[in-house]
Amino acid sequence: MNKVLARKLVRYAVCLLIVVLLVFLLPRCMPGDPVQCLVGEDVYLTQEILDSVTAKLGLDRPLFEQFQIYIGDLFTGDLGYSYTRHQNVADLIWDRLPWTLLLTGMSMLIGYAFGIIAGTWSGWMTEKKRAKIMTGFGVFVSCIPPYLLGLIFFSVFVYQLGWFPYKGFYETPDFFSVVYHMALPVLTLALFVFARNMIIMRGSVLTEKNQLYPQFAKSLGIPRRKIIYGHVMKNAILPILTHFAIDFGFILSGALFIEIIFSLNGLGRVMYTAVLNLDYPVLSGLFLVIALMAICANLIADILYGIIDPRVKRGDDQ
Amino acid sequence: MLILEADRISKSYGKVAALTDFSLEISAGETVGLTGLSGSGKSTCARILAGLERPNTGIVRYAGKELTGANPAIQMIFQDPAGSFNPVRTIYQSLSAVLHLQGVPKSQRRDLLSEHFQNAGLQTEILSRYPDQISGGQAQRVAIVRGMLVHPKVMILDEPTSALDVSVQAQILHLLKDIQKENGMSYVFISHDPSVVEFMADRVISL
Question: What element of type H or E holds A293?
Fold first, then answer.
């Protein structure tokens, strides 16, 4: 492992530590008694029982000692216990995470791939009517939040046309069942990702197109397709990478809303019920996992940046 | 023998007329100088002559045939040499791509480029560098080498020395003269500096 990568890893590790610290401190900074909050406002407990539960949870110990226990638990994969679901938070998240990752991953894959290609084309062919229509469509779709897009699609394709199912899958489904249930949510989120990336890519290609090197390549007789997709697209893709890192959290939150709308059994519904039930251990666990994914997305973008543009790598080395 | 001809070409961008009713004839081995104030249409004219842009009216002919697009026989050298290279590719990668188009096997490319570099007074170490890692003078020499790789008959030189300091300017001008002497190609030399145009051109046209 080279020095630059090691330095980056340290930077992201510090970032993760800050997130862990925030997840640990936030519930403890909230007003009120955490145990009372845990059992609910309607339940009356004697002071003795409250004290014993507080001691059992380790909340009577000094803050630093609590943090040590918390970190120790994290290393063993223990994210706490959900008293409303009567289940370990880690098990709950681990159970639902694959569906959220499937929805987000597939949507991003489709959205980014088509967004990059369409953005490159519309950036290169700005004068064409079809490119103008596509840009207008991209701007329009990108202005609609994913949850609203989801509601519109749900109303049209599920209620009106009946092409897709009303509810998600609640038991282990087979492959075709997964495709049937996931198609519309994936398309909804993919369309949103596509529109945002198409606009960014279009602007970036417009800038690259006016550089001298594509003209020089043209004068050398290099085929247009090769100039666009071999030279210009590769260089114009850098803002997309930056966008990937920044936008990952936003797309993930969009996925959570879409899961709620389409009744998918992912983290979105877990978060939704946790918010309704004030299930703080689940919310803390989700916050930590989502933050970890966002940090990983940033790290991947950071590494890819250096691979695609050697100037960045050189700057890092210096 | 007439090699490149522009017959009453005009170009406008929206309502702005960049070039109006311009005609030019260039014979083989001749150097035509093009001068004019900023905004007089020198660069527009260069792009049209190189086939990178189409005129709104008029016609450009290369070797008697209408020029409808870029033609490797007509090469263009730009004012910003470093900018004419793909910034994320090494000089070798950029030049190797041209040789690939020429059908030169990969095993012969480095030797061939080393030979061209020696003739242009360049060190072969430059091949492994990126465009932003070489000087303006070196980049312009590399750009000339790259243009020469496709064996052009006409070279459009759009202010090739205006971004360089005086001593490097002289080296580049002499290099261009030597290449012309060796290959007998035609030049369209564009500059706002009358002394440079006078040094290079057989005849001068003012825009």
Answer: helix A280-308
- Does the CB of B97 have a partner CB in chain A at under 8 Å? yes
Tokens of B195: 């002394």
Summarize pLDDT for B119-128 with one digit per residue, the tens.
888 888 889 8
pLDDT at B205: 86
Structure ipTM: 0.74
Question: Looking at this protein, which amino acid is placed at residue B72?
Answer: P
Cα–Cα distance between A185 and A180 in angstroms, integer?
A: 10
Phi, psi of A312, rounded to the nearest 5 degrees: -65, -45
Rounded Cα–Cα distance for residues B96 and B85 (Å): 12
CA distance A201 to A123: 7
pTM, two decimal places:
0.75
Is residue A98 within 8 Å of residue A202, measured between CB atoms? no
Q: Do B2 and B26 contact (CB within 8 A), yes or no?
A: yes
Query: Per DSSP, which regions of B50-117 are E strands?
Result: 57-62, 65-66, 74-77
Sole residue written with tokens 């825009």: B207
Nearest Cα residue to A106 out of A286, A271, A264, A313: A264
- Say whether residue B132 is in contact with chain A using an 8 A CB cutoff: yes
- What's the length of chain B? 207
Q: What is the pLDDT of residues B37-82, one digit of tens each?
A: 887 888 888 889 888 888 889 899 988 888 888 888 898 888 887 7
Choose among B76, B83, B87: nearest Cβ to A219. B76
